[in-house]
């Protein structure tokens, strides 16, 4: 078993859920998260993908500081971009097709498309029935 953790743009969540559902993997956990990557919190990376590329250089955006930065005294405001984090536990043989599907839906070629992490899972138990491992994730 493997855990797939995908951090994606918020507006891509419905398409991603549909693609996973079409592959037969509708069981997942979704969380709202804030973070930053190489763009260091630049909100331009999170904007509508239909925005012209020159928009970010011609318009000065004032990103919203994180809640933490507002509640604490920081020497420099920390900026974070809102994303969605999806977590799925799947059989080993399903990882490749699911990762490819997530990439296909979310890849725009621009900064902020997201990240996918794949980790081993040692075991699983369905609390209601006590089913273990593979039976617990289907």
Q: Can you characterise this structure?
A:
It is built from five helices and four strands; from the N terminus they run βαβααβαβα. The chain has helices spanning 13-22, 55-58, 67-71, 95-106, 134-137; strands spanning 2-8, 29-35, 81-90, 114-120. Strands 2-3-1-4 form a four-stranded antiparallel β-sheet, covered by helices on one side. It is of the alpha+beta class and 138 residues long. α1 packs antiparallel against α4 (95-106). It has a domain at 2-39 and 81-137: Alpha-Beta Plaits, CATH 3.30.70.
State the CATH architecture of one domain: 2-Layer Sandwich
> For the CA atoms, what is the radius of gyration?
18 Å
Beta-strand content: 15-25%
Query: How many strands, which pairing sense, and closed or not: the largest β-sheet?
Result: 4 strands, antiparallel
What characteristic shape results from the CA principal axes? globular
Name the helicity range: 25-40%
Which regions are unreliable across 5 or more consecutive residues at pLDDT < 50? Answer: 44-51, 58-62
Average pLDDT works out at: 82
Order of helices and strands: EHEHHEHEH
Could you give the count of β-strands? 4
- CA-to-CA gap between the ends? 11 Å
Give the class-level CATH name of one domain. Answer: Alpha Beta
Strand order of the largest sheet: 2-3-1-4
What is the helix tally? 5
């Amino acid at each position: 078993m493997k855990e797939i953790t995908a951090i994606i743009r918020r507006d891509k969540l419905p398409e991603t859920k549909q693609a996973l559902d079409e592959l037969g993997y509708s069981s997942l956990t979704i969380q709202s998260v804030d973070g930053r990557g190489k763009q260091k919190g630049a909100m331009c990376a999170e904007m509508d993908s239909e925005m012209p590329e020159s928009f970010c250089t011609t318009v000065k955006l004032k990103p919203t500081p994180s809640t933490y930065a507002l509640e604490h005294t920081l020497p420099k405001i920390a900026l974070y971009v809102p994303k969605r984090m999806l977590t799925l536990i799947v059989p080993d043989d399903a990882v490749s097709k699911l990762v490819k599907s997530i990439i296909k839906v979310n890849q725009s070629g621009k900064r902020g498309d997201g990240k996918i992490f794949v980790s081993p899972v040692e075991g699983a138990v369905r609390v209601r029935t006590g089913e273990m491992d593979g039976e617990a994730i289907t």
